Amino acid sequence: MYKIKTMNKISNEGLKLFGDLYEVDDKFEDEDAIIVRSAKLHDYDPPHNLKAIARAGAGVNNIPVDACSDKGIVVFNTPGANANAVKELVLCGLFLSSRKVVEGIEWAKTIEDDDFGKAVEAGKKQFVGPEIDGKTLGVIGLGAIGVAVANAAIKLGMHVVGYDPYISVKAAWGLSKWVKHATTPEEVYREADYLTIHVPANEETKNMINKKTIALMKRDVRILNFARDALVNTEDMITALKKEQVAKYVTDFGNKDLVNTPNVIVMPHLGASTPESEENCARMAVTELKDFLENGNIQNSVNMPTVVEARATNYRVCIIHKNIPNMLAVFANAFAKKGMNIENMVNKARGDIAYTIIDTNDLSEDITKVIEKHDGVIRARVIAKAVF
Ligand SMILES: NC(=O)C1=CN([C@@H]2O[C@H](COP(=O)(O)OP(=O)(O)OC[C@H]3O[C@@H](n4cnc5c(N)ncnc54)[C@H](O)[C@@H]3O)[C@@H](O)[C@H]2O)C=CC1
Ligand SMILES: O=C(O)C(=O)COP(=O)(O)O
């Protein structure tokens, strides 16, 4: 039985795919794998048995990815599985940033006049806001969400200028030909009437929206942040709003200072909170974990290479190791000494780390111990045919 620990509420539509070989609980202390959404794992002390963590979602900044790599724990995410949900909320945010709908609704609740209609007609002039048609949307980060937002904005009649120095081939294929490609973020900042950011939070992107970058933007720019709080410097944003450099800030990642600042709309991290997205993410995360635990296959990992091999033998030995010379010779030698014949072997590297799968019909019980003794080997595991 594999033990799966849930660190957040995960859609049952996904969890039920685990099947009979699995127990799922939020209380295990010796789990084989974790499935998580936004719960922070930086202070979590992983049990020795933990082999994998699946983030049912996109952002992995709640997971200590480097420390996991050092321990041979594979970290997965579910690319694109919640992108449509986020795109729809970003479009909602785009309209809310423009038309004073939120302010108008709040004001309507305060009307005490018996003639409600008359009060509305007299008061509505306070809530005039511009149309988005014909305006320019700047998109920083053209991944699953950025591309979906850019394409939708084109269909809504906007001009779109996008920036992503690391755009994937898949994303580039999906991007509307009408999106202007910027070669620097500054170009986007200068041209945008509306700016939306869809990049991961990391050292490079931290504080990317700050007083210097805001100073490059048009006066009255409207900024949307459905990516992460760390991308925007809160103090600089509040100052820019007060000086009316920024007309509106709409974010899924608020804090106590922002929530009470005029012209800020804070949503409580609702981007991926749709049944469709929760199911998509859970299904994808469960499928990834099952294929790794049962077959050693790795797909959609953020810290290990992609390795997917069909099973054809009685045993599979899976080795996570450093990407250094001589490792394959070490494994082949260990197999030879134990009289184990290699039927199939695949090795892939990603940065400092590498992963090797060796398929065999023979098994010497202590092969993993022998392999793990060698410098550079992080973790070895045998998966028997009985499991699949
Ligand atoms: N509000 C919410 O509930 C959600 C928020 N998110 C956030 O949105 C982010 C993006 O999600 P996806 O589009 O699914 O991820 P993705 O990985 O498909 O796209 C991210 C894109 O950012 C680009 N990028 C990285 N560094 C960049 C830089 N310095 N400048 C410009 N582009 C850069 C990458 O090349 C990639 O194309 C996630 O990392 C997460 O933080 C994701 C899902 C839900
Ligand atoms: O996928 C992401 O990066 C998200 O921010 C979604 O977070 P959630 O799964 O809704 O807690």
Keywords:
7-stranded parallel β-sheet, Rossmann fold, elongated, Alpha-Beta Plaits, 388 residues, single chain, alpha/beta, binds 2-oxo-3-(phosphonooxy)propanoic acid, binds 1,4-dihydronicotinamide adenine dinucleotide, 16 strands, 3 domains
Summary of the model, kept short:
Helix content is 32%, strand content 21%. Strand 10 (221-225), helix 10 and strand 11 form a beta-alpha-beta unit.
How does this structure look, described?
Catalyzes the reversible oxidation of 3-phospho-D-glycerate to 3-phosphonooxypyruvate, the first step of the phosphorylated L-serine biosynthesis pathway. Also catalyzes the reversible oxidation of 2-hydroxyglutarate to 2-oxoglutarate. This protein is α/β, with parallel strands linked by helices and 388 residues long. The protein has three domains: 1-81 and 272-304, Rossmann fold; 83-97 and 129-266, Rossmann fold (3-Layer(aba) Sandwich), CATH 3.40.50; 310-388, ACT domain (Alpha-Beta Plaits, 2-Layer Sandwich). Helices cover 32% and strands 21% of the residues. It contains 14 helices and 16 strands. The protein has helices at 12-15, 65-71, 83-98, 101-109, 116-123, 144-155, 169-174, 185-191, 211-216, 234-242, 256-259, 275-295, 327-337, 367-372, and strands spanning 2-6, 22-25, 33-36, 52-55, 74-76, 136-140, 159-163, 180-181, 194-197, 221-225, 246-251, 264-266, 315-322, 344-350, 353-360, 377-384. A seven-stranded parallel sheet has the order 8-7-6-9-10-11-12, sandwiched between helices. Helix 3 (83-98) packs across helix 6 (144-155). The longest helix has 21 residues, at 275-295. The radius of gyration is 25 Å and the shape is elongated. The model has no long low-confidence stretch (mean pLDDT 97). The structure holds 1,4-dihydronicotinamide adenine dinucleotide and 2-oxo-3-(phosphonooxy)propanoic acid (HPV). Residues 37-38, 57-59, 82, 271-273 line the site of 2-oxo-3-(phosphonooxy)propanoic acid.
